[in-house]
Amino acid sequence: MRVHVIFAHPVETSFNASMHRMVVETLTEAGHEVDDCDLYAEGFDAVLSRQERLNYHDTDINRQPVAAYVDRLLNAEALVFVHPIWNFGLPAILKGYMDRVLLPGVSFHISDGKLTPGLLHLRKLACVVTYGAQRWRAMVLGDPPRKIATRMMRATMKPGTPVWYLAQYDMNNVTDAQLQQHLERTRQKLLKF
Ligand SMILES: Cc1cc2nc3c(=O)[nH]c(=O)nc-3n(C[C@H](O)[C@H](O)[C@H](O)COP(=O)(O)O)c2cc1C
User: For a tag on the chain, would you pick the N or C end, based on fewer CB atoms within 10 A?
Assistant: First the structure.
């Protein structure tokens, strides 16, 4: 498959950066064609401008400022997000990607006020994420990033499209050995992507 990897972390020595490298290498090893988008390295501008908001619903022109990113998304057969959880949400650069690229006419369509999915060409989504908190704490707070993946993103794709949420919780307490285990478990899973 053509897999579009979207990575959001600013530090090249971080655990997320290791996960990102592993994800790209593993998918390539498994025979996929990877289009790797490192949002920080590419200098993605996360801010939806005044003009973009004014043009948001005009599907003839709304994608123009991010046309290259929309093309990459539409060219993909599968998506993999790699990122940490910040303030029980997405890093701002990834939130900005969603605001600016997941547009009407791209990830969804609106007709007579009714929404239908736009990413019908996607066959799979995986989210490879890390939390500082333990799982129970995230659950108490409703775990919004998990819902963005398994509900919001799922709603942009064909019903039944698999969504894998591959999370490491408790980053504040896990040992190096546990991190290596998680990396290897995720690698094994992605070999079957
Ligand atoms: C700005 C910021 C906000 C954070 N907010 C949360 C949070 O709301 N919930 C959580 O579980 N962890 C939170 N964390 C912890 C990160 O999830 C954790 O540092 C990360 O998963 C570790 O991966 P890394 O070493 O690759 O950065 C936050 C960290 C930062 C820097």
Answer: N
Output the pTM of the full model: 0.97
What are the beta bridge partners of residue 145? none
Question: Which structural domains are found in the chain, ordered by start?
Answer: 2-190 (3.40.50.360)
CA of 84 to the centre of ligand 1 (A): 6
* Whether residue 40 has its Cβ less than 6 Å from ligand 1: no
Which segments within 2-93 are labelled E, that is strand? Answer: 2-7, 33-38, 78-84
Parallel, antiparallel or unpaired: strands 2-7 and 78-84:
parallel
Query: Residue 104 and residue 126: Cα distance in Å, rounded?
Result: 22
CA distance 187 to 39: 22
What's the gap in Å between 171 CA and the centre of ligand 1?
Answer: 8
Classify the C-alpha dihedral 143-145-146-151 as positive or negative. Answer: positive
Q: Are 87 and 141 in contact (CB under 8 A)?
A: no
Residue with the smallest CA separation from ligand 1 atom 4 is 86
| pLDDT, tens digit (0-9, with 9 covering 90-100), for 59-106 | 999 999 999 999 999 999 999 999 999 999 999 999 999 999 999 999
Q: Which two tokens stand for residue 57?
A: 């619903």
